Amino acid sequence: MKKDDYVIVVKDLKKSFKNLHVLKGLHLNVERGSILALLGPNGAGKTTTVRILSTLLKPDSGEVIVNNYNIVKYPNEVRKSIGLTGQFAAVDEYLTGEENLEMMGRLYRLSKKEARKRAKELLKQFDLVDAGKRAVKTYSGGMRRRLDLAMSLIASPPIIFLDEPTTGLDPRSRLALWDIIKKLAADGTTVLLTTQYMDEADQLADRIVVIDHGRVIAEGTADELKSKVGSERLEIIISKESDFEKAVSVIEGEQMQTDKKKRIISVASKGGTEKLKEVLQQLEKSDIKVDSLSLHKPTLDDVFLSLTGHTASKDEHDQEIKK
Questions:
Q1: Contact at 8 Å (CB) between 161 and 188?
Q2: Which of 252, 225, 189, 201 is nearest to 308 (CA)?
Q3: How far apart are CA 9 and CA 262, in angstroms?
Q4: H-state helical runs in 37-111
Q5: How far apart are CA 288 and CA 311, in angstroms?
Q6: Phi and psi, residue 199, nearest 5°
Q7: Using the 8-state DSSP alphabet, how is residue 135 labeled?
Q8: What are the residues whose beta carbons fall under 8 Å from the beta carbon of 72, sequence distance 6 or more?
């Protein structure tokens, strides 16, 4: 891929806060018009990376290019190219939704007429027309989040940074925001988002980058990352009427995991449904009864566990130092 195809290029990025080394040589490339999800456990460096890319923090060393501009040499040009939505909605509760948008437009140096026109367009795009004249303090969490994202788009930037955009939203609001993000990318906007929701990355991202301890430890499409975990797994619950230990000895398979208390046997399956039939036959011959049996494909949660040593908590937030 040509260098010009990358709208964000990060080389050997390092950042420390006193004795805390947050980024230890991060490398990152984001294709123009794509959605890239940045995943990682607490303290991995996700929020720090976004804050550096959006010129809110200066890097200690390394090179960062955003929309062909070096963020250290040309921060003002970078700011003209980006929109940023942080972990918490940055809206004025006492202004109406329309007033919030117009105010942001004026801050971006749009004329009053342009700001008013753009505000009306965004209210329609984000399904906030009916609420546009109401004070934001009357909005639900999902409405505030949509308004916050709309404000970051007031100047139609080609690049959007979203730091855990759906944290705290109900399922319906999350799905609505997912649709908006997909439409943005379809219209040519480049989106970089951080998230703790594995299903969110799976649904939205063209590519996923997993970071841990300030470095990239894996990257690729969701399917490519899942393939690194391994094969499908059979999960079998043995009936209380049967001997659990005998069932374990009967089933052959690599990477077997057992939970005697819950009577669960989980085994790697490279043969898919054929392996499932084989296991059932083995158990039947040994007169072992099964309460349930299911076949699971690898998920991004499995990827996260395999790479970082633990699953990603949906309630986690980065504990990185904020400045």
A1: no
A2: 225
A3: 48
A4: 46-53, 75-81, 97-107
A5: 33
A6: -65, -30
A7: B
A8: 58, 59, 64
For the record, the structure tokens of 51 come out as 């804050």
Summarised one tens digit per residue, pLDDT across range 205-259 is 999 998 888 999 889 998 888 877 666 777 899 999 999 999 888 886 556 778 8
Which pair of tokens denotes residue 111?
A: 């004329």
Domains with residue ranges and CATH for the chain: 3-96+138-226 (3.40.50.300), 232-297 (3.30.70.100)
Cα–Cα distance for residue pair 71/66, rounded to 1 Å = 7
Q: Classify residue 319 by burial, with Cβ atoms within 10 Å: 0-12, 13-18, 19+.
A: exposed
**Cβ(258)–Cβ(248) below 8 Å:** yes
Cα(9)–Cα(30) distance, integer angstroms: 7
Pick from 134, 143, 207, 211: nearest CA to 177: 143
Neighbours of 236 (CB within 10 A): 22
Tokens read off for 21: 């080394």
pLDDT tens profile 7-33: 999 999 999 998 899 999 999 999 999
Would you state the structure tokens that stand for residue 264, as one six-digit string? 């669960």
Q: Would you state the structure tokens that stand for residue 124, as one six-digit string?
A: 């329609």
Q: Which amino acid is at 53?
A: L
List Cα–Cα distances, 7 to 115, 178, 286, in angstroms. 27, 22, 60
Residue with the two structure tokens 């709309």: 150
CB 105 within 8 A of CB 114: yes
Reading the block at residue 120, the tokens are 């009306």
Non-local (6+) Cβ contacts of 31 within 8 A are 1, 5, 6, 7, 190, 206, 207
Say what the alpha-carbon torsion angle 168, 169, 175, 176 is, to the nearest 10 degrees.
-130
**Do the bridges between strand 35-39 and strand 190-194 make them parallel or antiparallel, or are there none, so unpaired?**
parallel
